[in-house]
Amino acid sequence: MRKTRGRLADGREILYFDDSEPYVSGGATRRLDDPRPLPGRFDPVPGPDGEPHPFTGPRMRYDVLTGEWVPMATHRMNRTHLPPADANPLAPARPGAAYTDGDIPADDYDVVVFENRFPSLLQVPGEEDVLTHLDGEELWPVRPAAGRCEVICFSPDPDASLATVGHRRMRTVIEAWADRTTELSALPGIEQVFCFENRGREIGVTLHHPHGQIYGYPYLTPRTATMLRQARAHREATGRNLLRDVLEAELRSGRRVVAESEHWVAYVPAAARWPVEVHLAPRRDVPDLPALTDAEREDLADIYLRLLRAADQFFVTTEADGEQRALPLPYIAAWHQAPVREGREDLRLHLQLFSVLRAPGKLKYLAGSESGMGAWVSDTTPERIADRYREVLG
Q1: Are 61 and 151 members of one domain?
Q2: Active site includes 133?
Q3: For the chain, how many structural domains are there in total?
Q4: Owning domain of residue 254
């Protein structure tokens, strides 16, 4: 695998991760110049008075009732939303085509990563991470949302999916995830790196091209903070790692284990919340993706593809002619990694793959109990999910 860096017209970084020749050997290089006449992303912007004003990044406000930071990224209201096929900003450039505002200047790629054009988190050069207070009230702290948001494209084919890319390309995606986790973790102020994929209109994707995202947060996310609190309490009570104990308990039970390999175990958690949910964890205690060995990465490429392909067989519908057809599963694939600094001995790498689809044509809506109170109600049982997953895994 070969990594090549470049800059887009507005200054955003782009990185090609190539696994094919002549690019791996350096015999050729992907296009690095971006011909679009874009203004610099940090250039002054016109204000309400028509005069240029210094660029300011998104801000985040502290919710004193929950202890959570909430980024306010109003510019995302204008981001690209379900464009037609001939205006796909994630597709390779097409020489001579009318559309000229794609984010990838090369006419082909294997895997490519670039900074998001509409980021929720953004580090602005020269802007200090200073805490202020909204309306002068100490109850309402405000900080710059000084993180980083990247897009990772898994394939140049807009009709592909991560499940269809094959072992070699999946291995390259894993290398890209690990590389970006390492580099984002080294940025000043970054506390946590999150690699994830949203797929499907039901999930809320705005681009159907096979892609994921990588966030570098300047704070610990609520999910991670909760897991860390639970893990520390468990270590204090038992002296052991909570996520290690969860994996070993699932293996002892076996009831919800759906797949195993030399280095990985896939299981439906005992208190699964979603209509479809499976976790994938390494057998060895590993804090994050960069810590995986080559053998673990090779094994991961295979078992991850198996889980994704099985997910696309989880639900079937009967057509008017009586034929049954599998439904591509709308899902979120979330890599939980240990934070950059805090709690690395307590948290453990694992994947959470889940879907809001509870039956063909029926979604799991987060209604009053879930949305208002955060009190979850499951529409099925983890054992039923595991039985169906084992069935489609074959």
Answers
A1: yes
A2: no
A3: 2
A4: 223-393
Residues 143 and 269 in one domain: no
Q: Are 95 and 1 in contact (CB under 8 A)?
A: no
CB neighbour burial string for 22-37, b if at least 16 within 10 angstroms, e if fewer = ebeeeeeebbeebeee
Same domain, 180 and 234: no
To 10 degrees, what angle do helices 294-311 and 382-393 make?
100
Q: Would you say residue 45 lies in a domain?
A: no
Q: Which of 211, 234, 263, 350 is catalytic?
A: 211
* Residues in CB range of 248: below 8 A, 6 or more apart: none
pLDDT confidence tier of residue 309, bands split at 50, 70 and 90? very high
CATH number at residue 264: 3.30.428.10
Residues 132 and 10 placed together within one structural domain of the fold: yes
Residues 69 and 123 placed together within one structural domain of the fold: yes
Structure tokens at 109: 């790629």
In this prediction, residue 77 has a pLDDT band, given cuts at 50, 70 and 90, of low
Q: Write the burial class of residue 280 (CB in 10 Å: 0-12 exposed, 13-18 middle, 19+ buried).
A: buried
Helices assigned H by DSSP within the chain: 167-185, 222-238, 242-253, 294-311, 373, 382-393
pLDDT digits 0-9 by tens, 84-135: 767 788 999 887 766 677 899 999 999 999 999 999 999 999 999 999 999 9
**pLDDT tens, residue by residue, 30-62:** 999 998 989 999 999 888 888 898 998 999 999
| pLDDT given at position 21 | 97
